[in-house]
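So, could you explain this one?
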Amino acid sequence: MSTATQIVDDFVAALSRAYHSARLYPGQHPATRARLQALEASARAVAEIAEHDVEVVASEALVRIGPQRFKIQHPGAREFLERSLETGARTIVLRRAELAADAQALVTALVEGEVPAPTVHRERLEAPAASKAPAPSRPGDPPLDPALPGRLLAAWNLLREERRYPAREIEAIALDVVRQQGDGLVEAALLYSAHEPLETLACHALNMARLTYLAGRQHGWRGADLSALLTAALWCDVGMLEIPVSIWGSGRKLAASEFRQIRKHPLHGARLLLACGDAPLLAAVVAFDHHRRPGGRGYPQVGSAMDPSPAAALIQAADVYAALRTPRAFRGAVGEQEARRLLARLRDLRLDADAVDLLLERALPQGTRVVSVESPVGV
């Protein structure tokens, strides 16, 4: 193996290890810092031998430096390359003059699922908020992916029927949620709507996850923390599968005994997730907490005035707003301004005030559009 090949191979290995560590250990964890420092040293070694920018061609599993081609053979690079392709980044351009900084920024971007296609530029990685604003949504824009609710239901059923946590499926769904059109700031966020009860339930979970993701980013959540928050939102209503659809999907007036069954779905969801040893603990906590209110109100009752977790508090606000903005069997959708007014009224009464403010004032100042999975017509 030539010296150049060895240096590039070491760089790929350092890049892969840093990405893997950043996914497992977010923020300033010592393991992540050590891997990023190793990546910086390896990048400097590559910059010394390179005369051109470094291109990581994920679609061909190779590194290209000018006319030179280096096949990626490091066994640990597979996860890194797959993640690049999942985000749409087939070719990743790292500037030679800023190779160490670009490589570290790339790790962060891949963990957060922000890498744009087809080429990654340093400017987008370093400051995505300052990038060019997307065009406003229009009624003729493509609808949301109609297959996503069914994919989420399939993942829920795997958990329920096989007691198996579908990690790869949920990660792919979460990435698609992040890619959805609209950032809530300069472009209206899109929400799902459906008519069939089970599909409506999955659409609601996707909407909660999307709104939670937008609010979490504005609040400063990043990396694995933001990913865990988004994943928890996707799972919080899985316990509804344990309750007959004939009860919660009927649209009729429910008996007191039926209401009691529905109020058990947070407990069902937490139990399903805890039964899988590899399910994220935060998902189980949020599944249990997402109908518990500040001051010990809500359900399930835990015998104290302990408030719900911060993640659950944010997801609660997203839950209520998403429910208001989409139609149900017993009512139509509530308009945007009325939904915002009703959510604001619940501030401090049934919902965490900071979570409501974060959602309404920072994550969705430009509003939302509701798109049916059967039709791309906005509501």
